[in-house]
Specification:
Elements: H1 10-16, H2 23-32, H3 46-81, H4 90-100, H5 107-127, H6 131-146, H7 148-151, H8 153-156, H9 166-172, H10 174-186, H11 192-199, H12 203-211
Length: 212
């Protein structure tokens, strides 16, 4: 009788009593997400996780984007030159052409010719058609643009080549376009004959590989 009324031991009480589910323990479990399989810890914005994929996608098409961007600029600026007074660089470009041709090319003819040249260059860059011929015209046009620094020195420099005027800065910024054109030219598709020749394996090398 007395043995049945003895108090339970510490081990029995720990084994038989349910785990404490007080508010403090429940709050801690909820905060940590433990015990709830549907609760997930935040992993950050999804946009940050997709940045490497977007960078890889742009890397594959970066030179196409560069080519089309430069082409759109040429189409835009060439179209402006078709409208007298619409382009701020129109007067400077016409005077440069007049200086280069010793006044033999009338202004009424040089303006539409310049506009047509820029629009053709832009169309070639945007579409990628006749790309090598387009790039040749592009670099010739850029060379003519930079001649303004020499044939119109009073307008291009403020007393020293170290201090270009606003018009001089307008011309000098075309260095970026030249760099873009060089990048496009470096990654332009090779002619079919050159590509076929590069892919052809020399017979002697093939024989040596077979012997190895």
């Amino acid at each position: 009788m007395s043995s049945d009324l003895r108090p339970p031991s510490h081990e029995e009480a720990h084994r038989e009593s349910p785990r404490s589910t007080g508010p403090g323990r429940a709050a801690a479990a909820a905060a940590s997400g433990l015990g709830h399989p549907d609760v997930r810890l935040p992993r950050g914005p999804r946009a940050l996780a997709s940045l490497p994929a977007l960078a890889a996608l742009y890397r594959r098409h970066s030179f196409t984007v560069l080519r089309v961007s430069v082409g759109l600029l040429f189409l835009w600026f060439g179209t402006l030159k078709l409208m007298p007074g619409a382009s701020p660089a129109e007067d400077m470009a016409v005077r440069v052409m007049s200086e280069l041709t010793s006044g033999r090319l009338p202004v009424d003819l040089s303006r539409p010719l310049l506009a047509a040249a820029e629009m053709l260059i832009g169309a070639g860059l945007v579409t990628g058609l006749l790309l090598r011929l387009t790039l040749l015209a592009f670099f010739v046009h850029m060379a003519g643009t930079f001649t303004a620094l020499a044939v119109l020195p009073a307008e291009m420099w403020d007393g020293s080549p170290a201090f270009p005027t606003m018009a001089g800065q307008y011309v000098l910024k075309n260095v970026v376009l030249v760099a873009a054109g060089l990048a496009v030219a470096a990654h332009a598709p090779r002619p079919w004959g050159a590509a076929r020749g590069a892919a052809r394996v020399p017979s002697g090398g093939a024989a040596r590989d077979g012997e190895g």
